[in-house]
Each structure stands twice: as structure tokens, then as C-alpha cells.
Amino acid sequence: xxxxxxxxxxxxxxxxxxxxxxxxxxxxxxxxxxxxxxxxxxxxxxxxxxxxxxxxxxxxxxxxxxxxxxxxxxxxxxxxxxxxxxxxxxxxxxxxxxxxxxxxxxxxxxxxxxxxxxxxxxxxxxxxxxxxxxxxxxxxxxxxxxxxxxxxxxxxxxxxxxxxxxxxxxxxxxxxxxxxxxxxxxxxxxxxxxxxxxxxxxxxxxxxxxxxxxxxxxxxxxxxxxxxxxxxxxxxxxxxxxxxxxxxxxxxxxxxxxxxxxxxxxxxxxxxxxxxxxxxxxxxxxxxxxxxxxxxxxxxxxxxxxxxxxxxxxxxxxxxxxxxxxxxxxxxxxxxxxxxxx
Length: 342
Ligand code: HEC
Ligand code: HEC
Fold this sequence. Notes:
- By secondary structure, this protein is mainly alpha-helical.
- The chain has two domains: about 10-20 and about 45-185, Cytochrome c-like domain (Cytochrome Bc1 Complex, Chain D, domain 2); about 195-325, Cytochrome c-like domain (Cytochrome Bc1 Complex, Chain D, domain 2, Orthogonal Bundle).
- It has twelve helices and two strands, in the order H-H-H-H-H-H-H-H-H-H-E-E-H-H.
- The longest helix is centred in the first third of the chain and has 15 residues, at about 10-25.
- The protein starts with 8 loop residues before the first helix and ends in a 16-residue tail after the last helix.
- One heme C (HEC) binds near residues 221, 240, 294 and 305.
């Protein structure tokens, strides 16, 4: 089979687009005062100095991301659960294989993961490189081990040029696999949304109702207390009073840290699936339902965030808030599926 060593022109395009934006001097409404300024998109993609982003590493990583041979039975790839047509999640209440697991957590998106400072719902991984080993080795996920993956990939001829272009020679090892997977995921950045165009100065980009929704988001409803910045997250953990038994971050910190019991990472609000499921336990299916939860404030318990302050809004205001959140949707990324090396 022909091996396309550069199946990734698409995200080359993406990298270029982001840098071209700056090069072309696309500026955001000059003198635009805060608060809109706080939501400005970054001009480039972040990557750590220990693993600088290159097109070659991302190309290899893309192939690995879609390759089911990274799972023991050869049936599950990262994309089985982080699917491009499901906003890089799976649209499921519980992930594949987790049907019988108590407190199984919903699959989060890997969009904009270049900016994550704590990964997983409870923050138990600190980098994309470190995270990549977890799904490969988790029994109900890909159920494999790293030596097994390496032994399987090393003899695949088609991978040789991909590893060589990314790392200088064709050797397959754990560091290279995780660096490549991380690099590919860093190229998955939300498209420019109507909200971004509005922030950049185009007053016609979003409706009057969505603008009212944004004002509610920042003021009366105080969503911005936790959903901040261009990704709409504070990268922190909160108990928002859901009924779930799962203590989330609480299992990672001493029990005296009251506010972390039942706390989960604040998810981004960009590119949300239209009908959910939302939340770590997939317990909500519409944005109206989510907002009504915040209006009441959820279950009262010691760990509940102090920012969970009940409020009252009209039906019309709730719809405006929903309309605003929908302006954060830039639509699906265009992806060419990679050839699988033989
Ligand atoms: C069986 C489904 C499944 C597969 C396969 C899978 N994931 Fe995930 N992924 C999940 C779930 C579920 C979580 C959240 C787990 C948690 O927080 O406890 C997650 C979390 C993540 C996160 C953290 C996102 C965040 O917001 O913190 C990243 C990154 C990620 N996965 C990448 C990968 C990569 C890379 C692969 C392939 C090597 C992969 N996943 C394979 C289901 C899956
Ligand atoms: C106290 C901090 C906090 C406040 C205030 C807050 N959120 Fe959240 N939000 C979170 C956290 C944490 C989660 C994930 C909770 C979980 O799954 O246990 C979340 C989840 C969500 C989700 C689901 C996203 C997904 O991918 O599942 C939406 C939508 C959302 N919030 C919208 C809002 C809106 C709208 C407001 C204002 C009315 C708001 N939030 C106020 C912290 C907050």
C-alpha cells in the first residue's frame, strides 16, 4: 500500500493559518476595552520546549492517533473515543468499554488541549505527553502495555519514514510515541467562531440576543467566575453540586481539602455538542437544563463551590444565554484521515 508520509496538509494549513493571522497583521479592534479583550484568541499554538511542535511529529502523531494497533485487540484507537465528527469526544454518556464501571466519566474533547494545564476530569495527568500512556494501558480502554505497542509498531515498514522524519531515525520508543501523540493533539484548535469575530470587532457577527447572553454570562449569572478567558475555563476544579457519587479531585487530595471533594475540572465551553451529554457524568442533555441547574445552585454540601450562587433569570434571558454559548461554536475541524502504514 502506498504510504502517504504527509497526510497532514490540513493541519499544516492550520498552523499556517494561525501564524499567518499575525503575519497578516490581523488585529483585534484597537483600543477595545476589557472585558472583551480578556477573550482574545492566542495567535499561535503552545508547545513545551521539551517537545517543540513540528509538522513531522504531528503527522506521525496523527497516524498513531487513528491506529487501532495501539490497542491489544487491534480494535480501538484514540479516535474511537475522540472522534473528529463528535467534536473529538464520543457523544456517549459513558465511554466505550466502561458500561459496567461505577462512576465512569464521560469522554472529554481533546480540542484546544495544547493549553491544558491539568488533564483528566480530576487533573491526574500534568501533560499531554504523560497522559498518552494512560488510555493505552487502561484495561477497559486500549488494554495494552507500552513494550507491547513498541514491539508491534517497530516492524511496520510504513512507520519507518514517519518516525525518521519526526525524530531523525526510525527507532520506535515510548517517548517518541507520546511526544508525537501530544504534538498531533496540539494542532487541534477550535475554528474561529462568531464570538471570536465579534471580539475582533465585527458587531454583526453575533445577534443582539447573544450579546445580552454574554452580559448575563459575565454579570447576573456569573458563569465567568469559573469559565474564563478565550477557552472559557479557569483550568481549576469545583464542586458544582451535581448528584454524582464520584468525588473526583477529592480522591487525589487529603480529605481535609473540603472544596476539592466532588470537584471536577472546569470544561471549556467552546464547540460543545448541541445536545450533550454534558458534565463528567454525562447527566445533562441541553444547555437550558445546564443553566437551570446553575439557577438553583445544585446540591448544598460543604464542598460546593462558593461561586455557586443561585440566581433568577427570565425564560427569555435563559435563551439569550444559550444563544451566546452557541456563538462559541466554530464548527467541526476538517480532517483527512491518515493512511494506515503497513
Ligand atoms: C475508551 C475510550 C477512550 C480511548 C480509546 C481514549 N480515550 Fe482519551 N479519554 C477518555 C476518557 C473517558 C477520558 C477522561 C477520563 C478521566 O478524566 O477520568 C479521556 C481523557 C483524555 C484526555 C484529557 C482531556 C482533558 O480535558 O483533560 C486526553 C488528552 C486524551 N484522553 C487523549 C487520548 C489519547 C491520546 C488516546 C489514545 C492513545 C485516548 N485518549 C484514547 C476516553 C478514551
Ligand atoms: C463554580 C464554578 C462554575 C460556575 C460559576 C459555572 N460553571 Fe459551568 N462548569 C463548572 C465545572 C467544574 C463543570 C464540570 C462539572 C462536572 O462535570 O462535575 C462545568 C460544566 C459546565 C458545562 C458542561 C460542559 C461539558 O463539556 O460538559 C456547561 C455547558 C457549563 N458549565 C456552563 C455554565 C454556565 C452557562 C454557567 C453560568 C450560568 C456556569 N457554567 C457557571 C464550573 C462552573
